[in-house]
Structures are given as structure tokens and as C-alpha cells.
Specification:
78% helix, Ferritin-like domain-containing protein
Amino acid sequence: MLASNLKSIVSDNVLHAKWLNTLSYMENAGAKKISASEHKENVNLIILKHAAEEHRHAYYLKKQIAKVDEALCKTYTNAELLSPNHTKYYLHALDIAVCRYLKAVFNLSGYDLKFAAYLFVTYAIEVRADELYPIYQAVLDEAKSKVNVKSIILEEEGHLEEMMNQLVGFSDDWEHHAAEVIKIEQALFDNWVAALAIELPLSV
């Protein structure tokens, strides 16, 4: 379903610009979430690197819009995003649901809860990115689009490995908990994709 949706999006300049802008918004929101999870003093290099790279992805995707139509999508207003309500709800809802899960399972609070949520939410997002961006790149290649996300694909693979290394240190049973978080993310993602489909010409 995602690949066929993306083919419809890439074939329409306005939809494609909004799609790039939507991805940019989500990368930017992710970067802000990472920064919000930081301890006031104990900030490690990986967190700084990750936040910086997510911000750069947001910038890179925003710049790609000019390859489609430089007049489009100057802001993150609802009119310039695809499925804005679902887009803005997705990461926030994932964060809240994961916090509830971790609080119940590990009895965490305060900074410990924030950091654990950062680990698991970011892991789920990186798993998603590892699936979504290659599908999008394949559609771009097929359409011979000037847009490309190859550099993001490489960095997201690195992020996923970094998150797994940190999760190993967090819990011996991290894979079980990560699988539960992935289920939460999958439901939210499915809702988001369904909402996207409603905006596409083929679904009318």
C-alpha cells in the first residue's frame, strides 16, 4: 500500500512537495523530542550527534522541495503538509504510549523515564525509517526524479545500530520490550498511511 501511495504522490508535484515537507516536519519533530529528553548535564556524544543529524535531515528534505517546485511548502502549516493532524499526532502519541508502557514495566519516572522513552521511541522510528526511505527511494528512481534520499538512508542505518547498542546496556530483555513498542508504532503508522491515502487522487 505504501509503495502505491508513494507512486501517486511522486507523480504529482504539489503532493510530492507536501510529502517532502511532511517528512521534514517529522524529522524536525524527532530532533526536538531528542533534545527535550536530554539531561541538563549528562549529555553523551551519541545524543548530540543524533539530534544534529535529525535536524539536518529536516533541512535536507526541505531543500529537496525546490527540485519539485521551489514556490511550494515554505512553512509547516497544515495546508502545506499531508494529513497534518495524523502527522502531528503520530510522534507525540507514540511518545506518550511508550512512556506509559515503560512506567508500568520498569516503574521509571523523571529523567530516567525520559531517557528510556528516547531509547525505545527512537529505536521504533529508526526501524520505520529503515523501511520507509528505501521504498521511497525506489519510487524516486523509477520515476527518474531529481529528488533523492540516499544520504538519509545511510545515516538512519547507523542510527538504528547506535540505538540497539544503547538498548543492550539498558536491559538484558530489551528485544522483548522493543517488540511491544514496535506494535504500538505499527498501529499509529497504519493510521497515518490510511489518512494519507484519503488525500490521494486514486482513492477518490
